[in-house]
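Figure 6 in text form: structure in, sequence out.
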């Protein structure tokens, strides 16, 4: 099934607006957070900056978020990369939480099919299976965000 479908279309079916999902107020908040992370004001946040100023305490999580945000892999996060990542991620989390019927932080195939906006249940199953790259029959939030983020940034 890989590469046979338009992932942007899948995200639209799930209710995503993608890079345009953030309101002006949210974008402003994201930019303020970026400024806090960019203590020297050079417009770039290094991994060290992120470790020192992130609200997270888990080094693995910090590194994972940094790498997901640094889309061009140059070792720094720009304001544009930060705002884009937060916009995509916050929207994805909102949609994930709506589908996570029992609130356990995991979306099963049944929850995905039953609680997504997708009327065609067979298509919903296919989309779930494509997101479930490890074929576990469920999606943890980090795994879901990884797939979602890659799809949302496809051109």
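Output sequence:
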């Amino acid at each position: 099934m890989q590469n046979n479908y338009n992932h942007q279309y899948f995200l639209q079916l799930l209710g995503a607006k993608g890079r345009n999902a953030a309101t002006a107020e949210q974008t402003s908040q994201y930019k303020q957070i970026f400024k806090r992370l960019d203590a020297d004001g050079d417009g770039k946040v290094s991994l060290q900056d992120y470790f020192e100023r992130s609200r997270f305490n888990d080094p693995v999580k910090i590194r994972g978020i940094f790498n997901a945000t640094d889309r061009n892999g140059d070792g720094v996060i720009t304001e544009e990369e930060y705002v884009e990542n937060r916009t995509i991620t916050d929207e994805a989390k909102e949609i994930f939480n709506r589908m996570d019927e029992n609130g356990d932080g995991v979306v099963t195939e049944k929850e995905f099919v039953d609680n997504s906006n997708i009327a065609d249940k067979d298509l919903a199953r296919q989309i779930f299976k494509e997101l479930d790259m490890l074929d576990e029959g469920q999606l943890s939030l980090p795994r879901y965000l990884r797939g979602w983020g890659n799809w949302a940034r496809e051109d």
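Caption detail: The chain has a mean pLDDT of 92.
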